[in-house]
Amino acid sequence: MNRYRLLPSDEAAAILELAGDIADRELAPLADDFEERGEFPREAVRVLGRAGLLGLPYDEADGGGGQPYEVYLQVLEVLAYRWLTVAEAVSVHTLACYPLAAFGSSAQRAEYLPGLLGGELLGGYCLTEPAGGSDAAALTTRAVRDGEDYVVNGTKAWITHAGVADFYQVFCRTGGPGPAGVSCVFADASTPGIVPARPERKMGLNASPTAQIAFDDARVPAGRLVGEEGEGFRIAMSALDAGRLGIAACAIGLAQAACDYATGYAKERQQFGTRIIDFQGVGFMLADMATQIEAARQLTLHAARLKDAGRPYGIVAAQAKLFATDMAMKVTTDAVQVLGGYGYVRDHPVERYMREAKVLQIVEGTNQIQRMVISRTMSR
Ligand SMILES: Cc1cc2nc3c(=O)[nH]c(=O)nc-3n(C[C@H](O)[C@H](O)[C@H](O)COP(=O)(O)OP(=O)(O)OC[C@H]3O[C@@H](n4cnc5c(N)ncnc54)[C@H](O)[C@@H]3O)c2cc1C
Fold it and tell me: Is 159 in the pocket of ligand 1 (CB under 6 A)?
């Protein structure tokens, strides 16, 4: 898998190797069992934290790994190759740290970031609401200033790590309607009045808890406001530009796992007295899968390198998220096809990969929303 990689430093190569070793030894052996039981692998995520893999793209001065975004994304890909739930956990945690790292005051960064990036704490990102998904600017969760606190009331929906996170970035309304009335606060999960609901019963990613969270007179200290009042929507969108690349990297790792598994199977399985990979119909399908994966990888890394260079990258990130996640859906579906009937049962992992790929087309902006973002820029 590393044969064609271009990495910016020897240190990056060592980090990628470390991530691969941990994923092989500590993650892959647990995946089937935890997914079957729907249990979040909290300890496995802690192992990544202790290895320094939970704050990779953030400044070393803030307690992060000081690595380029392109390195962080390749680590995510390596993790997703073994277990999507864990890669997604790292991606969501990184997203949840972004508002403080990019918009927090120096005092907030000094006080909170070393703990968040050091790996012992896990974050959640609370933007979506039951009635406001794609139209995030319509959110209604309200934060009202009362003395030294904000009092937060409302309901967030579909929150990854609800109930297992240690802190939440919460987007809430402090002003009037529309994006200008949205602010971002940072809340401890143990705050009285923050109440996660029972996890949703999902199609895949069963070990990753997703649930509504009720905010019922939850008092968050006013010093936990990130940026200025009214800046929350800009913070949320900026976080998602970077976060979408994490989802693209997860899609690439998942698709690579499906492609490699299907290729191995096609080399073993015989029909009509020959290996099925030698039938052009199967061999060409695998060739298309491998080509699409590489194209998605290069588009995603291109967006990351623009980000690392301080250049605008949001549109390329939307293209990468769109292309990589549509690609993963197609590749994992084709992997099931390569295995025939054996692809449709749980004895092989490809049916799980296919169920897991679907959610990547939905989270952090559906692929319709990515197309909207891209076409709006084109129509200007
Ligand atoms: C497993 C999982 C984990 C998640 N984790 C988080 C999380 O941690 N934090 C968080 O805040 N959210 C999270 N989400 C929420 C996710 O981001 C939303 O589900 C997503 O943004 C879509 O919102 P919605 O589900 O309300 O769909 P809707 O917005 O109701 O969309 C329904 C359909 O309409 C389409 N549509 C909507 N508007 C347009 C338009 N203008 N043009 C064309 N088509 C449109 C959509 O593409 C979709 O196909 C998660 C979701 C899932 C399933």
Answer: yes
